[in-house]
Specification:
Length: 291
């Protein structure tokens, strides 16, 4: 089935989908994005994704191209047109197309593009069982990492370094050793007493939707959570570590920079949290990966 994209009001073949070269997304990374999972035609945690997108637009004074209901309708239509039972819906909004000049253009309409990429969660189940490796990288991003902007060069470089080193994810480390988050995931550790620790949702990390959902489920299961910075030394002593994101719900970290974490296999807490997340995914969408 040919893939279809949505570009400013039209559904077009992905191979022909384009925006003008003076679009501010292309020129300045002056835009924001959102990634949500569409499973069985249902968007997992959609209200939270829509709210984050809306907040991002407001923080950057980019006009809303359409409201959350219309956005959901277009997203679901796009997924259907792509015929994918499981897909990642990508939504990008930029400040629009205007003569290149740094200040906001007086009259530009925001550009809205969406794609729906078929996505199979089954490999994630396997990774959940084996665990993943992390490579540390210096934190090189800007002061508003809470905004989901398309300016991802530091994330791209960190992820590439990780993959070249045979690791799945990179963890960003500040000069004082603080672990902020992953290149495209949130970072967690588990203390020996089972308490979960993750960086507070301030301007240094993206407030992940899966992070939020996992927190809600963990609290519901009686687990304790501390939202506070932790450093690499603490992570190396942790009972467990794991990552969360839309595309990697909960994966145990078995090594950081080649040094084993916990027992060197995914621990019971991350496996339990993974199970809770799959239950929640199934409750909302009816989907459960075969594994
Ligand atoms: N990444 N931190 C960063 C820097 C991210 O880019 C992401 C998401 C997350 C996790 O957020 P969520 O739980 O809402 O997916 C944390 C998306 C999926 C991406 O860039 O493709």
């Amino acid at each position: 089935m040919p893939r279809i994209a949505y570009v400013d009001g039209a559904y077009v073949p992905l191979a022909e989908a384009a925006v003008p070269i003076e679009d501010r997304g292309f020129q300045f990374a002056d835009g924001i994005y959102e990634v949500a999972a569409s499973l069985n035609g249902r968007l997992f945690d959609w209200p939270a994704h829509a709210a984050r997108l809306r907040r991002n637009l407001a923080e950057l004074s980019i006009a809303e191209p359409m409201g959350p209901k219309a956005l959901e309708l277009v997203g679901r239509t796009l997924v259907r047109k792509n015929g994918a039972a499981q897909a990642l819906l990508y939504i990008q909004v930029t400040r629009g197309n205007a003569r290149r000049d740094h200040p906001f253009p007086a009259a530009a309409r925001p550009t809205l593009v969406m794609t729906a990429r078929p996505f199979d969660y089954a490999p994630r189940l396997r990774q959940q069982a084996t665990g993943i490796k992390v490579l540390t990288q210096p934190e090189q991003r800007w002061g508003r990492c809470d905004l989901k902007t398309t300016g991802l060069l530091a994330n791209v470089l960190a992820k590439q370094a990780a993959r070249q080193a045979g690791a799945f994810e990179a963890w960003m480390i500040e000069p004082d050793g603080t672990v902020t988050e992953g290149a495209s995931t949130n970072a967690w550790i588990v203390q020996p007493d089972g308490t979960l620790v993750t960086h507070p949702a301030d301007r240094k990390i993206l407030p992940g939707i899966m992070r939020d959902t996992l927190m809600r489920l963990a609290r519901g299961a009686g687990m304790k959570i501390e939202e506070r910075p932790f450093d690499l030394a603490e992570a190396e002593r942790a009972a467990e570590a794991f990552i969360t994101s839309t595309s990697a719900p909960c994966l145990g970290v078995v090594a950081i920079d080649g040094r084993p974490i916990g027992g060197g296999t995914p621990g019971p807490v991350s496996r339990r949290l993974g199970a809770l997340l799959w239950d929640e995914i199934e409750r909302q969408t009816g989907y459960r990966p075969a594994g």
